């Protein structure tokens, strides 16, 4: 949305310049307002007397001190309408698919929060067919949850699978620092599924300036709120990769000379991420926004400030890990969690679901202990051997991300494995369920 | 802060929610002001003054605000309104009634009345005309839901007064005059049911604050049995994300033996507050049979709400708690999470370019935390009644590392430490409170020991210490087994380890989502502990070390069925006799 308005005052004297910001004298400027500096987009980040500091998203390289500056008199905005469907945009909401500009109602991005008393408790199970998710970490519409994965994990593929199986009315992709290949991957998957018209994408690729990424989640969520609030639709928002978003935050805060806190991240990282993730909501009118994100890790380290702050904000996390034992990527049952699962499991799924899930994971943990014993060169007991055999089968038949079955089948497979490897006492499930589902003697 | 004319000013600088205001008169630290932006008035608080520049933190987004906008100072600090009608309300961090706001989205500058000015309350006088009264003295009473709500001499009235007139029993709105008091100089003060109090100041309308000595039952076994908290006690729950801080706090707030529960959702998830809104109106208060929501007030400043109001939210919650304590009530105050409050302080301190302390937190963080915790406590009121605020805060340590400033600062202030362990949470041993590292300092108080002996049982403390020893020795045995191998240690080590597992599975682990297991009354806790200790004392025959685990798994399995059964029901007894059967066959 390039814009120049008539009678706009043009400023031509920059006083200070850093890699990311310019400062000039101007009057009547509002905080957060957008501006154009030398043809590049910028936003007001500081007002001090008559001095205005602007953050130039694409950086200040080559900008002269006599560059033209105009103020747009508005915060960043997006035009919303049904025309968004099937389209690809950049971080500013301009089309990158060669199509025309979208006509529609103008909305400020980064809008206020939902009043907590106006929210509804999420309650609709989202089935993905992946047992590492549906069995152990069930998703619910209105939830916000990231994949935690090392950069070499196939997180974008898993996310695309989940998205297409989730039966959402709209899917909104917010791509941040996507490689061109990944961008084309998403485009192809959506196209091949014949679903393109229910998908809207806002993409910042590695070819674009990193700071522009900061606008992507707000753009995606403004579109999401339009569909969820105005059209009462269930909307699934995919944000990948939020680690690159956070990196952009740290670039900006560093350039603005702010005191960094842990891992050179800004002290406001928690609030910055929460503002985005808390847009996930179930509205009373039926619309909902579900956020599935990707947070890439460095060497599986979840104590780094980015995954750490994320975990404190989101409603769980899905931890992807390669299981060398079976040669497949699994959803790790220890590090993964869905905090909303208790709203649906055993209620929208079979009553034995919670107990079966917990028992299997506990026994899987016993297998981990047995493995440690083995590595330390000790003899294994019969029980140890059985837990190891169980763990391998459990990993292969249920945890692997290539599983695609319904929840009842997942539970039946669990009972089979429990019955095959353990006694009733070892499994320790409530008697009524054992009576009903136990396989074997 | 007595001033005749309002001080005004103009906006001179803006960085995020920090605004610099050039003022034309006196301002006070922490004074409230409003910035006029188009049709909206944005509330802010003074946090620093340099010459004619007041630095204010705005409780709202500053988007669009311009240099030169006018500002009006209010002559008072951030205050709450205290009166009947606070219970079952949902407030934001500044005590705006969230239910009174229009629309799905919060609107900037939308401030709503925390009280209902229309409804009438059935007032019953408690004092007599001619009484000498001071701040906090009870003048009368109204029933708020099922809680007797005292109408008091306002806390701000700092002299002695004579009660000149008092309304008769009858129905009044909160704004009607219900009493008139006169001071020594003959000046009269009409009083209503409403008073105001600045949230950052502690209410001191009590006579005496002794050390807490009475157990506060929470129904959570690994708290009540192992590391009990007291009425008026303080505790904190640190733990990495996902280890169960919020679930534990919710469980305590549902079950604890309190008259009033105040929950400050401070910078955490909105859906968790929605859970309370949704569940509490349905759940029964086990003591009164009324709905839980009737004794509960929620202060919600969720993580996406303005950061400055997050800091205010815990103080707002504490002030409401102090108000109800002054009525002689047992108040339970929960804050989830105090780390978010500390982070709000950090964000502001960084914007002010103050010299940072460890991890960029403000230097005085530890003092701020201690000062806050010190407002909790058990008190004797001037009329001899007692009241209490039991405070439990969660801490969200960065990277799960307990050696960070908020955890360390809180450790100095709180008397109970309920540390949640990642390893326990990973293996679904909920609640994941680490039984070895956690502690309750109250167990060392002679007055608490006395009280436990009298109310729970003469042998109780000895049993608790024994259970703790078994857990510790079990852990040591396990370490030895891990080093030397299953067959490299004597059989006694396996026995020891499995006896500690028995206590872990039966007493410590508790299913917060099971209708029966979720809450265990003290009597049942006592029964179960003595039963389990009986097993731990016994000697059994084993065929080999593998047999130890087979046997104890069976024992644990039966005990778990007992935990899921109604206490002393047929089902419970059936499992218990199966257990006796099993044990008998194995006794040495
Ligand atoms: N006592 C418990 N019983 C069963 N599950 C629990 C218990 N405590 C925690 N959990 C599980 O752990 C998840 C995270 O707990 P929560 O209290 O939200 O963690 P935190 O507040 O520490 O981040 C819950 O959603 C639930 O699945
Ligand atoms: Mg929590």
Secondary-structure topology with pairs:
The complex is a heterodimer of chains A (441) and B (588).
Chain A (H helix, E strand, L loop, with lengths): L13 E4 L3 E5 L8 E4 L2 E9 L2 E6 L12 E3 L5 E4 L7 E2 L15 E4 L16 E2 L4 H4 L4 E2 L3 E6 L5 H11 L4 E9 L1 H13 L6 E7 L10 H15 L3 E7 L1 H14 L13 H9 L3 E2 L5 E9 L8 H9 L2 E8 L4 E4 L5 E2 L14 H23 L6 H18 L7 H15 L2 H4 L3 H7 L4
Parallel strand pairs in A: 8-14, 12-17, 12-18, 13-14, 13-15, 15-17
Antiparallel strand pairs in A: 1-2, 2-5, 3-4, 3-6, 4-5, 7-9, 10-11, 16-17, 18-19, 18-20
Helix pairs in contact in A: 2-3, 6-7, 8-9, 8-10, 9-10
Chain B lengths: L7 E8 L2 E6 L7 E7 L2 E11 L2 E6 L11 E8 L1 E4 L7 E2 L29 E5 L6 E2 L4 E7 L2 E6 L8 E6 L3 E3 L6 E4 L5 E4 L3 E4 L22 H6 L7 E5 L6 H11 L4 E7 L3 H10 L16 E6 L5 H19 L4 E7 L1 H14 L13 H9 L3 E4 L5 E10 L9 H9 L2 E2 L4 H5 L12 E2 L5 H10 L4 H25 L6 H18 L13 H16 L7 H20 L5 H15 L4
Parallel strand pairs in B: 8-20, 18-23, 18-24, 19-20, 19-21, 21-23
Antiparallel strand pairs in B: 1-2, 1-6, 2-5, 3-4, 3-6, 4-5, 7-17, 9-11, 9-14, 10-13, 11-12, 13-15, 15-16, 22-23, 24-25
Helix pairs in contact in B: 4-5, 6-7, 10-11, 10-12, 11-12, 11-13, 13-14
Adenosine-5'-diphosphate (ADP) sits at the interface of chains B and A.
């Amino acid at each position: 949305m390039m814009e120049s308005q008539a009678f706009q005052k043009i400023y031509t004297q920059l006083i200070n310049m850093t890699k990311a910001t310019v400062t000039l004298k101007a009057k009547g400027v509002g905080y957060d307002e957008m501006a154009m500096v030398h043809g590049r987009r910028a936003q007001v980040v500081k007002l001090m007397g008559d001095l205005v500091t602007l953050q130039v998203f694409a950086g200040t390289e080559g900008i002269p001190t006599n560059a033209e500056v105009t103020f747009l008199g508005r915060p960043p905005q997006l035009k919303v309408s049904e025309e968004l469907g099937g389209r690809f945009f950049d971080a500013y909401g301009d089309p990158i698919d060669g199509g025309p500009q979208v006509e529609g109602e103008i909305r400020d991005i980064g809008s206020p929060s939902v009043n907590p008393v106006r929210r509804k408790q999420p309650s609709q199970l989202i089935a993905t067919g992946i047992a590492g998710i549906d069995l152990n970490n069930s998703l619910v519409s209105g939830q916000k949850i990231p994949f935690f994965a090392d950069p070499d994990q196939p997180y974008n593929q898993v996310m695309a699978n989940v998205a297409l199986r989730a039966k959402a009315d709209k899917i909104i992709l917010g791509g941040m620092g996507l490689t061109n290949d990944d961008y084309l991957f998403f485009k192809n998957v959506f196209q091949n599924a014949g679903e393109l018209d229910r998908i809207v994408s806002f993409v910042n690729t590695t070819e674009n300036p990193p700071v522009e990424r900061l606008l992507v989640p707000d753009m995606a969520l403004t579109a999401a709120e339009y569909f969820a609030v105005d059209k009462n639709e269930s909307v699934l928002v995919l944000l990948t990769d939020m680690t690159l978003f956070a990196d952009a935050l740290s670039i900006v805060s560093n350039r603005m000379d702010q005191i960094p806190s842990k891992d050179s991240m800004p002290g406001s990282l928690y609030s910055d991420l929460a503002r985005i993730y808390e847009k996930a909501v179930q509205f009373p009118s039926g619309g909902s926004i579900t956020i599935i994100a990707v947070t890439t890790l460095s060497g599986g380290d979840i104590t780094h400030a980015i995954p750490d702050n994320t975990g404190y904000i989101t409603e769980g996390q899905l931890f992807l890990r390669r299981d060398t034992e079976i040669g497949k990527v699994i959803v790790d049952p220890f590090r993964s969690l869905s905090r909303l699962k208790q709203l649906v499991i055993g209620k929208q799924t079979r009553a034995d679901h919670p107990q079966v899930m917990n028992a299997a994971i506990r026994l899987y943990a016993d297998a981990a202990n047995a493995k440690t014993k083995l590595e330390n060169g000790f003899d294994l007991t019969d029980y140890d051997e059985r837990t190891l055999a169980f763990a391998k089968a459990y990993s292969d038949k249920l945890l692997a991300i290539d599983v695609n079955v319904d929840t009842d089948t997942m539970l039946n497979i669990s009972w089979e494995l429990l019955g095959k490897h353990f006694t009733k006492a070892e499994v320790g499930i409530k008697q009524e369920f054992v009576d009903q589902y136990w396989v074997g003697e | 802060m007595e001033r005749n004319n309002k001080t005004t000013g103009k906006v001179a600088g803006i960085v995020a929610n920090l605004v610099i205001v050039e003022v034309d008169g006196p301002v006070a630290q922490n004074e409230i002001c409003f910035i006029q932006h188009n049709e909206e008035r944005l509330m802010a608080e003074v946090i620093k003054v340099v010459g004619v520049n007041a630095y204010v933190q705005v409780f709202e987004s500053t988007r669009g605000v311009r240099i030169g906008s006018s500002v009006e100072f209010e002559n008072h600090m951030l205050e709450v309104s205290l009166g009947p009608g606070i219970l079952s309300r949902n407030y934001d961090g500044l005590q705006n009634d969230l239910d009174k706001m229009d629309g799905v989205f919060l609107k900037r500058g939308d401030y709503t009345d925390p009280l209902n000015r229309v409804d009438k309350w059935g007032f019953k006088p408690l004092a007599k005309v001619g009484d000498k009264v001071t701040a906090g003295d009870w003048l009368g009473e109204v029933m708020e839901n099922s809680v007797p709500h005292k109408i008091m001499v306002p806390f701000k009235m700092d002299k002695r007064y004579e009660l000149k007139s008092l309304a008769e029993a009858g129905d009044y709105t909160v704004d009607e005059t219900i009493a008139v008091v006169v001071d020594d100089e003959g000046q009269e003060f009409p009083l209503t049911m409403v008073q105001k109090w600045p949230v950052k100041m502690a209410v001191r309308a009590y006579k005496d604050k002794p050390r807490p000595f009475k157990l506060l039952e929470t129904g959570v076994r690994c708290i009540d049995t192992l590391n009990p908290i007291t009425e008026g006690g303080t505790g904190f729950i640190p733990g990495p994300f996902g280890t169960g801080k919020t679930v534990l706090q919710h469980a305590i707030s549902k079950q604890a033996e309190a008259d009033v529960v105040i929950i400050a959702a401070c910078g955490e998830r909105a859906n968790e507050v929605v859970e309370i809104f949704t569940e509490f109106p349905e759940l029964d208060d086990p003591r009164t049979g009324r709905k839980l929501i009737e004794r509960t007030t929620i202060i919600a400043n969720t993580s996406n709400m303005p950061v400055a109001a997050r800091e205010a939210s815990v103080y707002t919650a504490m002030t409401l708690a102090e108000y109800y304590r002054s009525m002689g009530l047992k108040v339970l105050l929960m804050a989830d999470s105090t780390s978010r409050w500390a982070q709000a302080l950090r964000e502001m301190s960084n914007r002010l370019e103050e010299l940072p302390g460890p991890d960029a937190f403000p230097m005085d963080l530890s003092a701020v935390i201690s000062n806050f915790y010190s407002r909790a406590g058990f008190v004797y009121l001037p009329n001899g009644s007692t009241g209490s605020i039991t405070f439990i805060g969660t801490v969200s340590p960065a990277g799960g590392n307990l050696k960070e400033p908020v955890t360390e600062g809180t450790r100095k202030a709180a008397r109970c430490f309920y540390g949640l362990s990642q390893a326990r949470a990973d293996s679904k041993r909920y609640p994941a409170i680490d039984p070895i590292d956690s502690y309750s300092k109250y167990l060392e108080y002679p007055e608490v020991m006395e009280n436990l002996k009298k109310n729970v049982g003469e042998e109780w403390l000895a049993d608790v210490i024994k259970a703790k020893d078994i857990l510790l020795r079990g852990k040591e045995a396990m370490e030895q087994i891990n080093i030397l191998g299953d067959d490299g240690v004597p059989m006694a080590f396996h026995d020891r380890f499995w006896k500690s597992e028995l206590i872990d599975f039966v007493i410590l682990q508790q299913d917060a989502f099971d209708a029966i297991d979720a809450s265990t009354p003290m009597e049942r806790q006592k029964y179960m502990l003595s039963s389990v200790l009986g097993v731990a004392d016994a000697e059994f025959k084993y065929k080999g070390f593998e047999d130890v685990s087979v046997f104890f798994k069976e024992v644990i399995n039966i005990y778990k069925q007992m935990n899921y059964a109604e206490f002393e029901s047929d089902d419970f007894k059936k499992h218990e006799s199966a257990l006796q059967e099993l044990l008998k066959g194995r006794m040495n």
